[in-house]
Every structure is written in structure tokens, then in C-alpha cells.
Input
Amino acid sequence: LTPELLLADLDRREGNLEASARRYESIINRNPSDTLLSSALRGLAGIRVAQGRADDAIAIYDQLLTRDPNDLVVKLGRASLAYQANRMTEAEASAVLNEWLQQRPNDAPPELFSLVGSLPASEAREALYNSLLAIDPDNTPVQLRRLQVIAKRDERGAVEHALAVGQCLGVECERVAADQLDAVMAVVGAKPR
Output
């Protein structure tokens, strides 16, 4: 990595998103090597996501895909953003997910968690939810999808499971009062008690 990339990443970690973006843009504008350009574009896309600028990030992902149409991580990231921004259908996003799972089933980059957590719950993906939660048990969107699938089979069991494992979608179990059970059930798509 070059010092410029390291400084851009340091700015990002310190929350200086605009300074980081300027550094990445400076690298991009210097017409660097392919590897450095791809790294700078990925970094800038991440900054645009953090800034809530999904359209800009999608455009950067499109540039990356023009450079390497077979980059599955970029496809995952783009699909997640485009689906969340209503610029891709559920079927299209699911096709990208399925392509990933067929070609790289043992890899779990952050983009995979993002796409899986943004797509609606599916019983067909329950094993995927379980395997992702084994890697990152605190991933709330994937936890929610898993609980929604469980709720389809057993509404009360989904809530009891969330309480038993202490996840409660980010709420400590000790603080979940009986009157909050209805709220948790609503989150997982179950009928109130």
C-alpha cells in the first residue's frame, strides 16, 4: 500500500470522511497503476456509503465492474446498495447472491452480510443465516432475517429464542419487560400476543 492510501484510510477511521475522500480522489486523478486505482476507487466507494451517498457509491462500483466485470465482491457491494436504493429488484439482487454462493461459498466479506441482511427473509437462506451468524453473531440485520424465518414456523419460539440467547435485536435480555415482547414479536413479523 502506498502512504496516500494509508493516510486516506486513517482519515476514514478518524471520521474525517471528506478528507479521506479528497485523498482517494487525488490518487484517482493521478492515473495510478491498476492495483492502486482499484484500491482508491474501493476506498472512495466506502466513503460514499458512509456518507449516505448511495448513488455516488453505485457509480463508483460501476466503474470498478467496468474494469473487472468478474469481481464478485464488487458485485455484492453494488447489489446491496442498489437493492436498498430501489435501483435493483429483489430477483436481481438474489441472482447476485446466488452467483456468490455458487462460486465462493466459503468466503464471507462484509458485502455478503450487507446483501443478505437487506434482502427479505427466506426459508431457503436459513442455513446461510446460521453460517453467517456463526462468523458474526452480533450482525443485527442477519439476526433479524433468521428470526423472521423462525417466526414463520413458530412465532412464540422466535421471540423466546431471541430472549434466550440474549440478542433481542440489540436489547439486553435483562431489560426486556413482558410488555416489550409484543414489540419484539412485531419486529420479527409475528402476531402480537
